[in-house]
Design brief:
3 strands, 64% helix, three-stranded mixed beta sheet, binds zinc ion, mainly alpha
């Protein structure tokens, strides 16, 4: 009865398998591969990505999609079948808009730009990166033209990471909570001496750190029979199936935070992947719905759970048992404040909950201005520093600590940054809804029980994979679209208490 649909699914699953094989090679590259393997691996990855791209963008996909769409006409919007056809039609339209020559040129330019950027950052030399950035920007504008947009070229780029949201909507969301963030951070800076994080900067044995962090994410519900954890320089989470999810972590022997909160974060991504419904396995729908929603899951487990007083009521005695000489005399209040210390860091990846979204707003303003042609790359360092000063009240002393810090632009990733901030907002909206429906969740967290929260996420978010857009999902779960009200309220309450504001 659904023969055409089955043909579509088996074609797509072959494409999926090629992509997952590429993901295995990518994971291996960052966790196991000796440096000598780099050249061969680049060629192997390029071959797989070309085959996957050709298989997906070929005429056969179009024909099978059309046949299946005809066969399923009138199928329930929420069904796997209707969702598959709907989502894959959009993927197909997007990927076939970019000519192969253009994709190859973009790959070539960004591969070269990576080295140039890394050197420029190391030498605090923006000028040496400027012409590469100019070329990347030119290509980004072309990409937007190929993809198409109505209002702003940035719309086309943004849509690749957060389907359906527009530049104007992001601007409205950001403008809606920027003043409160600037005000909160200024208020905190007057009381900065109320919190010290010295207890976190001590010697902590790496194996013991690994054991503790692994125990924590196991308690959260990350399933190690369907996943594993390895070391990587730049931590990430990847998956080859919802039954094979890989987390990576980096360890510092003199600072507790990066590995502990990093693993909580990646496990949040990983539990999302592990929770995707069985019926979507091996299909293009078997992944998170958008980067923003994905980030909402990692942020929730890292911050809303992992940086809460309730969590440490349960976890601190356990951590003390592992590090008695470092933490034996530290009380809950001191530890809780230490892990929530707000610092006006120049570096986004080191930013705390209160300052994080401002780092993103700054990048969003600069990216959209560059795309619109109102800001030239030559003027970027100055524009960066001015904005930074107006948001944070301090100016980065070097471009290495400013405009050159992120890898994204050198990799051609424009339109990506906003998803981090959207994830922060969504994390609080979803968490509030879960607690509204299950008021026992905070008390359970204080007892080291996380299954009510995880099951709620599985049922309301994880199982659906990519079936719905971010906005469809958020409306279903919370009854409204993304908003900044909950996030600001959460920050004001939490940091007001910590800093006595
Ligand atoms: Zn993340």
């Amino acid at each position: 009865m659904t023969e055409k649909y089955q043909q579509l699914v088996s074609h797509l699953s072959e494409v999926h398998n090629i992509n997952m094989a590429g993901a295995v090679l990518g994971w291996d590259q960052q966790t196991q591969m000796p440096p000598g393997g780099a050249e061969a691996r680049a060629v192997q990855l390029a071959t797989l990505s070309r085959i996957g791209h050709e298989m997906f963008t070929g005429d056969e996909t179009a024909r099978l999609l059309e046949d299946a769409a005809g066969e399923l006409d009138g199928a329930d919007y929420d069904s796997n079948e209707a969702s598959m056809v709907r989502v894959v039609q959009q993927d197909y339209a997007e990927l076939t808009k970019l000519p192969a020559d253009f994709v190859a040129e973009q790959t070539r330019v960004t591969a070269l730009a990576h080295e140039v950027w890394a050197k420029a950052r190391a030498n605090n030399d923006f000028k040496s990166f400027q012409s590469a950035l100019e070329r990347i920007l030119e290509l980004a504008r072309q990409q937007a033209d190929y993809l198409g947009y109505t209002d702003h070229p940035y719309d086309a780029l943004l849509d690749q990471y957060e389907r359906g949201i527009t530049t104007a909507q992001v601007k409205e969301i950001f403008d809606g909570h920027k003043p409160q963030l600037v005000e909160l951070i200024a208020a905190i800076s007057h009381n900065a001496d109320k919190v010290s994080d010295a207890v976190l900067h001590q010697e902590f044995d790496v194996d013991s750190q690994r054991q503790f962090a692994t125990d924590v994410v196991t308690a959260y519900g990350f399933d190690f029979t369907r996943g594993r954890q390895d070391v990587a320089v730049h931590p990430f989470c990847t998956h080859f199936s919802h039954n094979d999810v890989r987390l990576t972590t980096r360890f510092h022997n003199d600072f507790l935070n990066p590995a502990l909160f990093g693993l909580m974060h990646e496990a949040g991504h990983g539990m999302y992947e592990q929770g995707i419904g069985d019926s979507l396995e091996g299909t293009p729908l078997a992944s998170g719905t958008s980067l923003g929603v994905h980030e909402s899951q990692s942020r929730m487990w890292e911050n809303l759970v992992g940086r809460s007083r309730e969590f440490w009521t349960w976890a601190l005695p356990r951590l003390k048992a592992i590090f008695p000489s470092q933490l034996g005399n530290v009380d809950l209040d001191t530890f809780y404040k230490a892990i929530n210390k707000v610092q006006r860091s120049y570096i986004r990846v080191e930013a705390d909950e209160a300052t994080y979204n401002l780092h993103i707003m700054l990048r969003f303003e600069l990216e959209t201005a560059m795309l619109a042609g109102t800001l030239q790359p030559a003027d970027l360092p100055e524009a960066w520093n001015e904005l930074f000063e107006s948001y944070f009240g301090v100016t980065p002393p070097t471009d290495t600590l400013g405009v050159l810090q992120d890898i994204h632009w050198s990799a051609g990733l424009m339109g990506y940054f906003p998803t981090y901030a959207l994830g922060n907002l969504l994390s609080v909206q979803y968490f509030n809804k879960a607690i509204q429906q299950h008021p026992s969740i905070p008390d359970e967290i204080a007892e080291g029980k996380f299954d009510t929260l995880l099951n709620w996420l599985r049922e309301n978010i994880h199982q659906h994979g990519r079936k719905f857009t971010s906005d469809e999902l958020t409306r279903r779960v919370t009854g409204e679209s993304i908003q900044s009200r909950d996030y600001i309220q959460y920050l004001q309450t939490k940091f007001g208490e910590i800093y006595g504001l």
